[in-house]
Structures are given as structure tokens and as C-alpha cells.
Request: fold
Amino acid sequence: MNRMRYECGVFHTRYASEMGLRPRPLQRIRLVLIAAAIVVYPFVANGYWLDLANQVAIATVGAIGLNILVGYTGQISLGQGAFMAIGAYSAGLLTLQAGLPWAVGIPVACCITAAAGAFFGLPSLRLKGLYLAIATLAAQEIVEWLMTHWTWLTGGTEALVLAAPRLFGARMNSPFVFYWLGAALAAGTALFAANLFRSRMGRAFVAVRDQDIAASVIGVDVARTKLLAFATSSFLVGLAGAMIAFYRNIVSWERFTLETSVVYLAMIIVGGLGSVRGSFLGAALITLLPALINNVGRAVQETAPQAAGLLPHVQHAVFGLVIIVFLIFEPRGLSKLWGNVKDYFHVWPFAYRKG
Reply:
């Protein structure tokens, strides 16, 4: 008698299928639809929404960089703003004082930031948890002090003003043109991170996060892995800082304070630690939420001016509330919620799917 076989979930019979980034047809279709939406978006959006999309792209690059360190390697960092500042100031000074083209200054600035990240990651060889967080907080304070007091190099509290970058005669910092650069860099960063954790080194990062002693027993060089995680993370964070510098054409220390570090930490918490997809979702939510609150405030400004005056306090309250809600009800963030939705429709309307 023929038996009907039922399967629940996704089963792979070949290593190539299991290791594929998008092994299922629906995943590939969804990727094509997302790519089509990205291509169409700048032609239908106005300048305001294009600017928000560019901010999301920059935040995605920085969030993925931080997630590599915190989510995948388990090294707590409160120095995101400092490393972004190093990337921004390095890119700006290389073009202003060294005369390098912006396309050359950006990768050089990323390498400088990676070296700085490895240096400030040295305490991770002896410290963990809260103690490591305090050490990275010290790095944030040191860089802030250098930005404001190293006047002969950074200009101190005065901002660095950069010339608009150009490519084939087009200004790269206009919202429409920068959109394509930001989307390409965000997509490239996501692809790099996804492939990184399919490699030997990426698996070493995860092993150190899960249990560094066990990782050492199976042959992982824990010290080298931690420093490499700091360097890799800082490279991408420096890229985000350089993108801000050339998009805004101005580099100011006020953009890279401790508040910036907290905001990016919130992005990966809300989006989902140890998830490339979560980095994008968290960056989009935390970037767009203040803009949506501002739009609501402007809408009620005439009818309720007193409520509009409370808008800055409302932003901080909503920001904190979002973090608390996710920590309590879904610690794995938006990425896990999206995964739950996909799992539900994967087996809907039956608990088991016919094989």
C-alpha cells in the first residue's frame, strides 16, 4: 500500500542546497520583488522620503557592522559613535588635506577605522560583559575628547566642510544619486556579512560568542578571533561614518556622541541580534520612527500646539518603550517576528505540509 508522506519544515538532501543563501523558489521570488521595489522607489518618492531612505541605508551598514561584533561574536560595545567618527573624520581629512579622491579616501578611512577598532578591542582579550562595555565606553569618551580638542587636525568644535563628491560630473550627495550608492553599499554589506558567517572565520565568531573556552578547546584562536571581529565590525562602521561625511558634506563631532552608540545598539536589539535581516529591520524602524512622530506632531500643531511642544519628550519615551517592549515580549527582535510569519504561511492552512 502506498503511504502518503508528510513533512513539516524545510529538508535538504544536498549540501549545496543547505548552504545556499536563497535555496527555495519563494525566497528567490521575494528577493526579486524587493530588488524591483528598490529600483522603482526613487522614481516615485519625493526628496524627503529619498533622504529617509538614504539614512536607512547608512544605518543598515552601521548596524550590520555592530551586529557582527555584538550579535555574532558576543562582544558588547558602546563605542559605535567613536568608530563612526573615526571613519568620517578620516575620509574627510584624506580628501581635504591629503588630496585623495573620495572614492579612494573611503576605503582608506575604513582601514584606519579597522585598525582603531582592533586597538580598542585589546581589552576584550581579558574582559567580558559589563567590564568590556565600560572599556568600549572609554573608547567613546577618548575619541570624543580628541574630536573636540585636537583642533589642528579635526578643527575642534568647528565642523569640517567637504566638497561635494562627483562621479562623471554628477554630484554624489544629491538624494537621488546617493540613493543608488547607499543601496549598493547596504546590499554589498549584507551580502558580505551573510557569506562571512558561512565561512570558517564566521563560524569561529559564533563559537566565541557561544562559549569561548569550548571554542579554544576545538582549536579556535580566541584572541585573534576577537580582534578580527573588532576590526571587521569597525571597518563597516567606518564605512557608515564615511557615507555620512560625504552625504552631508559636513563632519561634526555632535553626530557621533554616546547617544549615537545607544541608538545603534537599539537598532540591533529591536531588529534581532545575530541577524543580517534584523539589522536592516531595526535600522529602518529606529530611523523612520522619529520621522513619523515628527509628521504626527506637525499634523496636530495647529489643533493642539501644547501637544506638539511635547514632541521631543514623546520621541525619547517612544524610543525607550520600543526597546522595553521588544526585550520583554520578543528578545530576538523583528527578525524573529518575520520568521514566525513565514513559518506560519509555510504550513498554512495545515499543521503539516504534504511532501
